Amino acid sequence: MSRRQSRNKSTTSYRVEEEYSFLDEDDEDAELSRSRRPVIQDDEEDGDDFMPDANAEEEQEDDFDEELVEEEESEDEAAADEEALAQESSNIDVDDVEVTLLRPTTGKGKSKPVTRILPQSPAPKAVAPVQVPHSFARSGGRKVNMDDDKMRSRGIADFSKQGGQEVRLKDLFGPALSDLKPILKTRDEWRLQETLPIRDSGLKRSHFESEEARAKDEKLMQTWYAKSGREEFADGQKISILSQEQGAKYMLNDGAQSINVLMGTTTNPQQHPLRKNSFVNVADPFEDKEQRRGWLFHLGARVQDAQWMTNEDGGTQYLAVAVEQKDMTAQHPAPMEQPTAPAFSATKPFAASIQIWAFESTEEHALDPSKKPRLALVICTDWGAPKQFRWSPIALHNRHEPLGDVETVDIGFLAGIWSDGRVRVLNIEIPKTEAQTSNPIFMYFAQAAFDAAIPQAVPTCLQWLSGSTLAVGTSAGTLAIWTLTRPGTLSRTPSEVCIPRPWFYKQIGDTYVLTLLSGWPSQPHFLSASTADGFARLYDIRSPDADTVASVRGRVLVVTQAWHDHTQSFIMPDEYYILKHNNIRRFYHNIYSARAESSIVRVAASPVHPGVLIGGANGAVFAANPVARVVNTKVVPWQQNWFVHEWRPPVEKMVVTPSGQNFEMQDEDFQEVSNPNAAKVPPSVLSVPMVRITEGYRATQPGISYSTTSRKKPENETSTLITIFEEQSSISALAWNPNLKFGTWAVAGMNSGLLRVEDVGV
User: Which positions of the chain have pLDDT values less than 50?
Assistant: First the structure.
């Protein structure tokens, strides 16, 4: 049925003056644009999604509703339409149509409508189908026709100028029922989730995802791994177990040995001193402890990355965490005095590690606060600092014989980038005999089965396209893709190191690739890459030369992005502190859904619910559900702070003295100097870095645009207010748990070295 209908009737004639004005071939400076007759062609039409429905019903005698019908049809037009329907094609008749045009004006007044009556002509006996070309707008704004037979284009016209939500959904997701059904289910199913995920409503995967495709991918991975994959990794990896004393050097970092954390209610906050590698329950400072389930860790240095392991079975969830580490034996230059560009240069190998923490769950799959987290495994390497890593999205079930005499409890492929400029894939197996002990296992990897380097460049980001296919972006703007199941990709023996060659290698940018992301699981062939030139580009790896489109150029670097499967869009920050969605059908168009108070540095989307997490440079992490905003632009989105993290250095190292100057430190003695009634603060608190964490915020609707009533207007309206935050206050890592039963678990890492793991389901 056509979208224009009233009393079970559909129109078959459409206005042509504005929508098809790009068919004009007149000069650009022509004052008015007149309608032209369509060119008659003998071939069938291309089935344009934005043409009238070819299956429109036959016209009846009663009148149309005035609000939905713009033009009345003559008997000749109705006859022509009936013949067109018989040919199953859409036709446009421009005879005897009243066209309303707007005369362009140069002044401030509004344009006056000019009515013209086109000359009548007898209706043809037979109307041939019309080939309507796609169009796009050049930088100057002029519409340009694109013929699909001669040249490839982005294939989708601009947004429809008229229509409601139905037209918007067709523009964003497609005109077919199979395209609209998933987004309508998503909108109705999660309409009650405004910000944080709702636990009672249940967690489900995206309606756009195909269960058959996931089952097929899992079956292929399980078959390959059981047949030859596990043996190839076992032959190519060099693994040994270290003692506690030997493994201690792999966890060293130059972070603060102790930090004071101020947390709790705003009226009665409590101070919790945390030493390095210790943790505290986030519910301890509150009286109502049942409403909060989570832990706060102090890992010493900046949290480089934190990712949940793919593990759908069992009650234990594993989290891989890496902190910023440096070569402790070398001398490092001061900041801004680097002899070489660190982002474009590889470092010499040095000792570093990746920590894998284990968290227990309840019978309802919520985070169990009664069981403390434990450091289950430490991956020790001499490859420099781990910069970024990702778990394979397909879990491998432990249904095989143990390696040697040791039985394992979990398996997963961990792909990572190390600072020595190489990409590696490790097969992680945690020995079951040591799983419940308090001491961690230090597993040393001397060699990886998959070890690759990019010529004349260093890897910058990586992303899994499937359970066995890995994509890597580089500092030279190139993209390389490997598949582990292809012969010759993995090393067969430790003595013979294999140099895997990518089956896909292409220049996708002129400069540094900042982020790389795929549309897995529903659109794994789509890749979104942001580069240092300000653009984000979408590629279809099935035909990357023809099927590519660029987003609107930003003024800041896009350092983070996430794939939101529930709205079929890539989400990334904007220079105005706004979160934008770039739909795969409208990647060149921005849809805004949330607003922060500082630069957005981290975003995370969940594959099992539509909630997103946004982390800012000011240390705030808030959640939102963008589905309603994407579907309907009139919806004012909700957002809610999960927590706010603020850091300050030791008082003697602060650049600006605190207001009031109510204290002075001298020879470990505290002296009041200006306010005798001020509360005494011990020197042990002032000489140690402190972090204040506030939580318990209400959900708000700040809107997308800044309001003059909510922000103080500067004295000079032409000035711009810029706030500078402490570097250690910023959020450095953010991730949802991708496993279906544990989708409400979230993790946030900070530059101060703190890591917060919490079950945020409500």
Answer: 1-153, 661, 665-674, 677-678, 708-710, 713-714
Distance (Å, whole) CA 94 – CA 102: 19
Structural contact between residues 233 and 493, judged by C-beta atoms closer than 8 angstroms? no
pLDDT at residue 321, rounded to an integer:
98
pLDDT value of residue 77: 46
**Cis preceding linkage at 521, omega within 30:** yes
Q: Which residues pair with 615 in a beta bridge?
A: 602, 621
As beta bridge partners, residue 328 has: none
Contact in structure between 603 and 560 (CB atoms under 8 Å)? yes
| pLDDT of res. 267 | 87
DSSP state at residue 609: S
CA distances from 218 to 397, 466, 517 (A): 10, 10, 21
Distance CA 471, CA 341 (A): 24
Residue for token pair 């704004």: 141
Other C-beta atoms lying within 10 Å of the C-beta of residue 590: 17
Q: Which residue do the tokens 């957002």 mark?
A: 639
Reported as half-sphere exposure (CB side, CA atoms, 13 A), residue 296 has a value of 25
CATH superfamily to which 560-650+697-762 belongs: YVTN repeat-like/Quinoprotein amine dehydrogenase (2.130.10.10)
Mention every residue, 6+ apart, whose C-beta is less than 8 A from residue 228. Answer: none
Q: Name residue 272's beta-bridge partners.
A: 261
Contact between 153 and 138 (Cβ < 8 Å)? no
CA dihedral 457→460→461→462, nearest 10 degrees, is: 40
Tell me which DSSP letter residue 32 carries: -
State yes or no: cis peptide before 335, omega within 30 of 0: no
Query: Cα(480)–Cα(457) distance, rounded to whole angstroms?
Result: 12
Q: Where are the domains of the chain?
A: 1-158, 164-189, 238-256+300-326+347-448, 560-650+697-762, 653-687
